[in-house]
Each structure stands twice: as structure tokens, then as C-alpha cells.
Amino acid sequence: MKKYDVVIVGASTAGSYFARRMAEKGFSVLLFDKDCRDKLSPSYDIFHMAKDEMKQYGLPEVKEGDGIYEFTFEDSAICSVYGNHPKPSKLAVTGMHKHKYCVMMNDWAAQAGAEVVYGASFKNLTYDENGKINGVIYEKDGEETAVYCRLVADCSGIPAVVRRSLPDDYGIEKFELTPNDIFYVTLRYIDFEEKRAERYLRSDFWLYFKSWLAPSGGSDALIGIGACGGFDVAEKVYSLFEKTVKLPAHKVTRIEKGRTPYHRAPYSFVSDGFIAMGDAACLTKPNCGEGCTAALALSDIAVDVATKVMANGAYPTRDALWSINKLYNNTQGKEFASLMALLGSIIRHSAKMNEYLFKKDVIFSCKLLSSMGNGIQLSFADYAKTLIFVVVGLVTGNIKPAELKAVIDAIVTSGKLTAHYEKYPETPEGYEAWAKEAELLWGKTGKVADWDAVENF
Ligand SMILES: Cc1cc2nc3c(=O)[nH]c(=O)nc-3n(C[C@H](O)[C@H](O)[C@H](O)COP(=O)(O)OP(=O)(O)OC[C@H]3O[C@@H](n4cnc5c(N)ncnc54)[C@H](O)[C@@H]3O)c2cc1C
């Protein structure tokens, strides 16, 4: 039976990156995927990554003519419900073809020594006499193959096939995402009826509808719409969006659909010989649902810790891997938790309040929306302005008391979650009590799926 140090289930963006980094550290790595190489990551074509993040994580460079790169743009804006009062921002973003990017990432992992196997479906984990993971069984061409390993990484995306197969008492939450925990995205590739001299290279986002107009490949642009609950929910919102926002005349040339998690990450990512990563661990950016670079922060931490823990053939126990939880939850983990809690409640407002706040540049302000998630500092003047316009909004009927309460609750719970994630336990001993308290706080946040943007328009 073959032996590896690390077996990674799922060879998309998260799996390939972890495979490359662990192989670079000298570990023997098996990366396998249920899909064959030419069908990898089939659900949608164009995706984005911020150039800064690609550099930060040392991802391979892409360029014009390589079949992966499609465009770069810098200008974006978040707009009010009626498409007014844009909050602009500048950030260089690269657009790429997802399937070809994933194939390149597989090859990048293989170049560092990882073995990549396609058409291989995860069947089961194997355990030693003490009940600790010691290998994986996969099925390929109707035949089952068992391999030994010390660490299994679940990078299988939303199905989280490995995490969900663990014994109930293995120390990892086994939750399955329901439709309300998933962001259903439909991409409409469009051609403008009036031809433009220049390529369309900017992105606009309508917060109320969770809809965007962005550059594309193979068409002039694309319109995205996302909603928790199902594709039918997104379509209902899209009909309202089309009636409300005046987009340039266009015809739809093709439609793609995909799903991305919208759920808090598991409270622990690690256990004996196990780690969950990427969409399998719900590591997507709360403000946009993107997960290709969001997953890499945990991966980098995991590589550092696992490299030390697994030196000289040692087995990576839950205790030994625990600092991955601590380091992650004290950094990106706490930021994502606080942002997700904030957004889950802040979206509970009418079109009237949305337009009012965008116009007055408070709460939905340039300062906040142009730097979402990048640690902004609000001054006394910002708070004073917010207070004045909120009071005026209440008096003039632009804001309802219940809407204001939702915003205040969101800010309070989000702050409490940040503080709680900062207190993430150093060792597994404090975990049960910490998770219990976290559960209470999450119970106070609203879910995006609970708010009907059409009904409350
Ligand atoms: C329409 C849409 C647009 C998006 N745009 C962006 C974007 O612009 N930027 C961005 O950063 N993110 C974007 N995202 C999110 C992004 O696609 C995901 O967060 C990211 O792909 C997650 O990567 P992953 O490797 O964790 O999981 P996945 O990409 O889901 O890959 C999981 C892999 O595991 C394999 N697998 C599953 N089950 C098994 C099994 N039983 N055995 C073996 N293998 C298995 C699958 O075949 C798959 O290859 C978008 C999502 C959607 C739906």
C-alpha cells in the first residue's frame, strides 16, 4: 500500500495551493479529484482575484495569451438601490478562466513533487487501532485504492465529503450546508447593443440586490446576481433589479450558475490527522462570497504549523495542530466573523433607507464601502455625522425604528464576535466552553436568507 505524508481530497483552488506548499516543504503529497483533468471546475468560466493577493500568496503569474488571463480592471463602485451615489474604489483585479487556472494550479503543485490523480472519488477514511485517521480509500475506474497517510486535507468544496464522513466524536463539526447557507450565483454573459470603442473594464455592485455588472471574457460584460436560498430566489430579485436599475441595452449570450458557501467557518478546522480548508470549511469573503484567495490565509498558517508538527515522521495530532485554529481565528477568522454578522443584519432595510443612507453618505458611506474589510478607522466626525443623519432619517420617515434597531444590533453583535474570536482558546481544553458562547452570539445574528429583498422593497 502506498504511503504519503499528506492526502488532499479535491484538486481545485484550495487543494492545489496546499499541495504545492506542502510538497515544497519536502512532504510526499497525493492530490486527487473526482473529476477528470479536462472537466475540472466546470460550473463557471470567469473569476477574479485581486492582484495584491495573488502577489501576497506567491501565486503563479498569468499573462495575455496564456489562455488563463482574460483582463485586468481597477475601477469599481458600490451603488444605491436606484444606481445612484456610487462609492468608488480602486483595486487592480485580474479576471481569469477558472478551469484553465485550476489545471495550471494542479501542474504547479505537481512541479513541486505532488502526485495528482484525476477521476478518483473519495470513499472513506481509514483509522488506526486508536481510532485516529491513518489513510484514505478512493475509487477510480470502479476500483478502490487504499493509501496510508499522516494528514488528510478536505478541500472538496461545499459537499465537504471528508469532514462529513468523520465520526461524531472526532472533534469536528459535521454540519451540512442547507440552501439558506449557500449563495446561489447566476452569471449572465451579455453583449451591449451599442458597440463600444473600448473594452468594458469596470465593476459596479448594487448592494440591495447583490447584483453586479463586471468585465467578461467571450462577451462584452457579465451581470451577476446572488442570493441565499436558491437560484429561484436570485431570479426573483433579478426581475426587480432589471426593473429598478437602468443598465445599457444588451442581449444575454449565455448563462452560468454556481454555488458558494455563506456560513460561518467551523469552530475547529483540525483534529487527529485532519484539516478542513477552502469551501469545505466555508472560507469565503462575507462581502462577496469569493473564496479562491480567502482560503489561502488558513492554508499558509496550516503549512507553517504542519511543517513543524510533522517533522521527523511525527503524527499530527489534534493537540499539535491546534495552533492553526488559534492563529487563524485571531486574524482572518475574527474579521470574517465580524463582517458576516454585520452584513447579515445590515441588509435588513428597505429601498427607501438604502437610497437615503447612500445619498447622505452615512453607514453606506464611501469610507466604509470603498474599503470593505480593510480595517478602516472611523473618526469622531464620522460618528457624529452618522448620528445626525440617522436621527433626521427617523424623523423624516426614511428610516424605520426597526431598521435602525437591526443596524445597532448588528454593530453590537459583530463587536462581541470580534472580541470572542480574539479569545479563541490556546489549547483544546477551553474549546467546548468557547464554542458554546460562540454559538449563542451567532444565534443573535440574522441570516442573509431570512431577508426578502423583494417583499421589503
Ligand atoms: C459563479 C461564481 C463565481 C465566483 N467567482 C469568484 C471570484 O471571482 N473570485 C473568487 O475568489 N471566488 C469566486 N467564487 C467562489 C469560488 O469559486 C470558491 O470559493 C472556490 O472555488 C473554492 O475552492 P475550493 O478548492 O475550496 O472548492 P471547489 O472549487 O468547490 O473544489 C472542490 C473540488 O473537490 C472535488 N471533489 C468534490 N467531491 C469529491 C469527492 N467525493 N472525491 C474527490 N474529489 C471531490 C470537486 O470535483 C472539486 O474539484 C465564485 C463562485 C461562484 C459560484
Textual characterization of the structure:
This protein is an alpha/beta fold. The protein folds into three domains: 6-72 and 97-177 and 263-329, FAD/NAD(P)-binding domain (3-Layer(bba) Sandwich), CATH 3.50.50; 179-261, no CATH class; 335-450, no CATH class. It is 34% helix and 24% strand. The protein contains twelve helices and 17 strands. The protein has helices at 13-24, 51-56, 98-111, 231-244, 296-309, 318-329, 332-346, 351-360, 366-369, 380-396, 401-422, 431-444, and strands at 6-9, 29-32, 46-50, 69-79, 87-97, 115-117, 120-127, 133-140, 143-148, 151-154, 182-192, 202-206, 211-214, 221-228, 250-261, 270-271, 274-276. It has an eight-stranded mixed sheet with strand order 3-5-4-12-13-14-11-15. β16 (270-271) and β17 (274-276) form a beta hairpin. The longest helix has 22 residues, at 401-422. The chain is globular and about 70 Å long. Flavin-adenine dinucleotide is lined by residues 9-15, 32-35, 40-41, 44, 47-49, 121-122, 155-157, 159, 161, 185, 187, 258-260, 278-280, 284, 290-293, 295.
Offer a quick outline of the entry.
The chain has 457 residues and is of the alpha/beta class.
Can you lay out the helices and strands and say which pair or pack?
Layout lengths: L5 E4 L3 H12 L4 E4 L13 E5 H6 L12 E11 L7 E11 H14 L3 E3 L2 E8 L5 E8 L2 E6 L2 E4 L27 E11 L9 E5 L4 E4 L6 E8 L2 H14 L5 E12 L8 E2 L2 E3 L19 H14 L8 H12 L2 H15 L4 H10 L5 H4 L10 H17 L4 H22 L8 H14 L13
Parallel strand pairs: 1-2, 1-10, 2-6, 4-12, 10-17
Antiparallel strand pairs: 3-5, 4-5, 7-8, 8-9, 11-14, 11-15, 12-13, 13-14, 16-17
Helix pairs in contact: 1-3, 1-5, 5-6, 7-11, 11-12
The structure holds flavin-adenine dinucleotide.
